[in-house]
Amino acid sequence: MTILAQAANASPSADSFASVDALVQGLAGVGYIASRRIATALYMSVHLQKPILVEGVAGVGKTELALSTATLLGLPLIRMQCYEGLDESKALYEWKYGKQLLYTQILKDRMGAELADAAGMDEAMERLHGMGDMFFSEPFLEPRPLMKALREDDGCVLLIDEIDKSDEAFEAFLLEVLSAYQASVPELGVIKAKTPPIVFLTSNNVRDLGDALKRRCLHLHIPLPEASLERRIVASRVPNIEERLTHQLVGFVQALREMDLRKSPSISETVDWARALILMHADSLDAAMVRDTLNVILKYEQDIQMVEPQVSELLRTAQTTP
Amino acid sequence: MQHQMEDFIRALRAADVKVSPAESIDAHEAVARIGYGDRELLKDALCATLAKSEDEVARFDRAFDNFFARDPFDFATPPPPPEGGEAAPPEAKLEDVSEEAAGSELAQIILAGDSTALSQAMERAAQAAQVSEIRLSTQKSRLTRRLLDEMGVAEIEKIISQARRLEGEGGNALADRLEAGRKVVAAEAQRYVQRQHDLYASESGRQLREELLARKALNAEGGIDPVDLQVMQALVRKMAKRLADRYSRRRNRARKGHLDVRRTLRQSMAYGGVPFNVVWKTERVDKPKIIAICDVSKSVAAAAQFLLTFLYSLNEVVDRMDAYAFSGRMIPVNQILDEHGVDKAILEVLKLIGFQQTDYGRALQDFAENHLDKLDRHTTVIFLGDARSNYADPRLDIMRTIHERSRSVIWLNPEPESYWNQGDSVMNRYLPFCHLAKTCNTLDQLERIIEDVLRQYVPR
C-alpha cells in the first residue's frame, strides 16, 4: 500500500487523475477523446507508476495520447524516436568527443607548459590525472532524452516512440531505466529520477517485443474507433465542421475500413480529410468531391484505384449507417 | 475475492494469456486501487495489467466474460400444489420426515426455490471438490459426482426415500418436489463442471495435441491424419512467424563502440589536424541469404507437403531467399510461392514436377546450368531431401562446386541416420560436401535447424 500512497502524492494534477471519468473529461478538455479503456490504462499507469506500452496501427493516436497527457498535466514532454541502430550513446548520454579533442588540441601548449616544470615522471602523471577528470565532467556531457527525463525534477512525460524499430539490445538496456527510473554513467555514478517520469512506449508491431519489457509495462491496444467515437474525435479536432458532413465522412471512412485495403485509413487520415474538406468549403460529400480528395485518406495507388469505381456505392452505404 | 483472482489468473493462463507472478501482483494492486464495484472498470484495468498483445487482449476479453458470467440458474421447481383443492392434501413438512432432513440446507434451498443460495452453495462445494483443477475432459463425470456429493445430494436422496414411506399423500408430494429439484441441481452441476472445463482445460487439450504433432514424424507410415493436417499446417505457419519476428529485422551496421583512429585522423586533415568529425568503427551484419532446394519426389511424398509449406512460410520471412523444387528436373518456385496462397502454391508445385522419379544428378545439373550465379560467399544452401537417387549418377562434381562457392551447405534428411546409404541412398557420398547434415523429420527439428541457420547471421 505504501507504493500506492506514494503514487497518489506523485500525481501532480490530482483532480484529473482522481477517477477514470475525471480523466476522460480532462483529456477531452485538451482535445483528446479517449475511450474508457484508454483512460483506465492511463489511470493505472500513473497510479501504479508503471510505463505504458501503447500498440495500434499507425495514425490511431498513440503519440497524441502522450502529447495530450503532457498538456493535461502541464509537464514537459521529452520525446525519443527509436530507430534501427539507436544505442545508449544516442539515448542516454554521450561525451562530447569532438569538444574534448578540440580542447586538448587547443590546450596542448598550455598543458605542456604545466607539465614542463614537474619534478619527475610521477608528478607529471599526477598532474595529468587531474586534467583527465577535467575532460570527463558536466560541460563535456551531452545529455540525451533518457537522461534529460531522469533529471527533470518536477517530473515529465517521456515518450519512447516506435520502440519496435530499435534493436533487442536497446530494449534490454531500457529495462533498468523503466523499472527503477535510474541509469548508471560509469564516470558520474547512478542517476536516479527524483520524480519518476510518466513513460509512454509506442509500437507499430514491426516485431514482437521481448517478454521482459512487456512484463514491466502496462499494455494498451488502441483499436480503430467506432463510428460514434470517431465522430466525436473529428468534431473535437476540427471545431467548425458541420455535423452532417461529419456524419457522412465518418460513415464513408468506416465503410472503407470494411474493404480489403493495403492500408486502411486511421483516425489521423479522417481528421486530415475533414480539414481538407473544410478548406474546400464543402458542406456535404458528393462523389466528385470524394474522388478529388481520395488521396488524403488512401496512401497507396492500388487502394485508390480499387476504391474509385465504388465511390458512389460507398457513399450510399455511408448515408444509411446510423 | 483473493481466491477468485487466483482462479481468474489460472483461467487466463489456460486461455493462453501469459501471466507472470509480477503481472499478477500488478493486477492485485490495480484491483486494490479500483475495487470490484464497476465491472467495466475492473475489466479494463485488469486488461491493461495482464494482457500484453493484441491477440492476448482478445483472449482476455473472452476469458473475462466467461469467467465472470453468472447466468442465473433456471430453478423451475414445480410450485406447491394449489391451495383450497379438496383432493390435494397439504404437503408434508421437512420436519415430519426426520430431524436430519430438517437440518438439510440443500433441501431447504430446493423447497424455497432460492437460486442465489443454490449458486453460492455450488460455488462453495466446487471449491471443496476442487472442480477448477480440471485438466481433461474425461474428468468431467467424476468431478460432477464429487461436486454433487459435496453439496449433499446423498442426503436429499435419503430424505426422498423417507418421505415416500410417510403416511398420507403429503409425503409423496414433498418427495416429488425434492426429486424435481434434485434433477435441476444435477443438471446445473453438470453445466458448472462443463464451464469450468471450458475455462481451464479446453485450451490445454489443444496445446497437448499441438505438442504431440510437432514431434510426429513427417513421413510416418500411413501418412498424417487429415484432421491433423490442418493443425500441422497452422503450426508451420506459426513457426515461420515466430522465426520472422526474431530475425526479419535489417541488421545492416552495428556500431562497435571503438574509435576509428585512422579515419578520424584522415578527416581531421581538412581542418588542419583538428578532429572535428569523430568516426566510429562499424561492422556489417549480413542479412540471411538462403537458397532452399526441396525434393518433392515419391520417396519423400509425405514430408514434401510440409517442406513446401515451410518453404512457403520462409519465403515470406526471409527477404533474400530463392526456392527450388525438383524430383526429376529442377525448377525455381519463388514466383509460384509469391503469387498463390499456401495451399494453392503447394498443389501447383506438386502438379508441375511432383511425385516423379528422383534424379539428383539431373536436378543438380539443372541447377548448375541455370542458377549457379546465385551462389556467393554469403549464401547458405539448404537441401531438403532423402538423397535417394534411383542409382543415377549423383554428380558429386556439382555438389563440390556448390560447396566451394557457398558459405555453407546444410542437408536436412527426413530419414533417420541408420537408413542413410542403404539401398539407393547416396547420402554418405554427399556428406563430405555438407557443413551440416541432420535428420529432420518433425516440425520441432525443422524449426530448431532453421533457427540455427538464421542465427549465424546475427551478432551475439
Describe the protein in words.
The complex is a heterodimer of chains A (322) and B (460). The model of chain A is unreliable at 1-12 (pLDDT under 50). By secondary structure, chain A is α/β, with parallel strands linked by helices. In chain A, a hairpin with a 3-residue loop joins strand 6 (182-185) and strand 7 (189-192). A five-stranded parallel beta sheet of chain A has the order 2-5-8-1-9, sandwiched between helices. Chain A is elongated, with a radius of gyration of 26 Å. Chain A has helices at 2-10, 20-29, 36-48, 62-73, 88-91, 97-106, 108-116, 121-135, 145-151, 168-180, 211-216, 227-237, 243-258, 267-279, 287-297, 301-307, 311-320, and strands at residues 52-55, 77-81, 93-95, 141-143, 157-161, 182-185, 189-192, 198-203, 218-221. Helices cover 55% and strands 12% of the residues of chain A. In chain A, helix 6 crosses helix 7 (108-116). By secondary structure, chain B is α/β, with parallel strands linked by helices. Helices cover 56% and strands 10% of the residues of chain B. Chain B is built from 21 helices and eight strands. Chain B has helices at residues 2-14, 21-34, 39-50, 54-67, 94-97, 99-103, 105-112, 115-129, 140-151, 153-165, 169-200, 202-214, 226-247, 261-268, 301-317, 334-339, 342-353, 360-371, 396-405, 427-430, 443-455, and strands at 253-259, 280-284, 289-295, 320-326, 330-332, 379-384, 408-413, 436-439. In chain B, the strands form two sheets. Chain B has a six-stranded mixed beta sheet. The longest helix of chain B is centred in the middle third of the chain and has 32 residues, at 169-200. Chain B is elongated, with a radius of gyration of 34 Å. Mean pLDDT of chain B is 77; it is low at 81-88. At the A-B interface, helix 3, strand 1, helix 6, helix 11 and strand 9 of A face helix 2, helix 3, helix 4 and strand 1 of B.
